[in-house]
Design a protein that fits this description.
Layout: H1 3-12, H2 18-31, E1 38-42, H3 48-55, E2 59-64, H4 67-79, E3 85-88, E4 100-105, H5 116-129, E5 130-141, H6 143-150, E6 154-157, E7 162-171, E8 176-188, E9 191-202, H7 206-215, E10 219-225, E11 238-244
Parallel strand pairs: 1-2, 1-4, 2-3, 4-5
Antiparallel strand pairs: 5-11, 6-7, 7-8, 8-9, 10-11
Pfam family, one: Methyltransf_25
GO molecular function, one term: methyltransferase activity
Protein name: Methyltransferase domain-containing protein
Length: 252
Amino acid sequence: MYQGFAEVYDRLTQDIAYEKWADFLESAFLKFGEKPRLVLELACGTGSLAIEMAKRGYDMIGLDLSVDMLSRAMEKSREQGLDILFINQDMRDFELYGTVDAVVCMLDSINYITDKSDLERVFQLVHLYLNPGGLFIFDINSEYKLSRLLAGNVFYELDDDISWIWHNTYDPAQKLCTFELTFFAKTRGDLYRRFEETHIERAYSDEEITDALSRANLKLLDRFGGLGFDPPVPEQERVFYITRKESPCSRI
């Protein structure tokens, strides 16, 4: 899975300021009174955020379904002399040897969970492996973004080394946004290799997210729009959720 995509992912996401994403996570830890040491990142991809967090002193575990993504992540972390544990598992059915202080799942990876029962399962596993009092922080592409901004649109980029076309369709009945991506990656001389990827994200309402969190016994602390602590607006493109696994004494 994602074999060709792993080769070009970092190039396509070079505009993502992972330092700012890490700043947001650290600010959220501080805002909600936590100082995690061991942090699990679900759907870590090529490890850019895990690497940034490791540079800041966190013990990181990166988990992803794609072997090729993880291979790239391991290569990047070794180049920087970092010791990060990368695990090849599906976040819908992951296992750890112990618990962690915090769990993060960023860059709309939750939207890739297209079945609501699977979403609840992910949240339940987070609850299982999260230490009492620990934070679970994730973001989603909003229903507005998937159904109004991406639906039916075509995006593209032309470059000497790699060009891509991104076509989106949206099924309102299933609330599924399908991304059809076609890449042309330069190999040598004037030769290009063509490969295709299909990605599907599900639009979740706030009610669906909060209900799944409640069923998993994760307490919603707050939700924010963008990499800050402002409340989401109706036309918010990305929403961040901050949740906590309550300690037993907090329920007494």
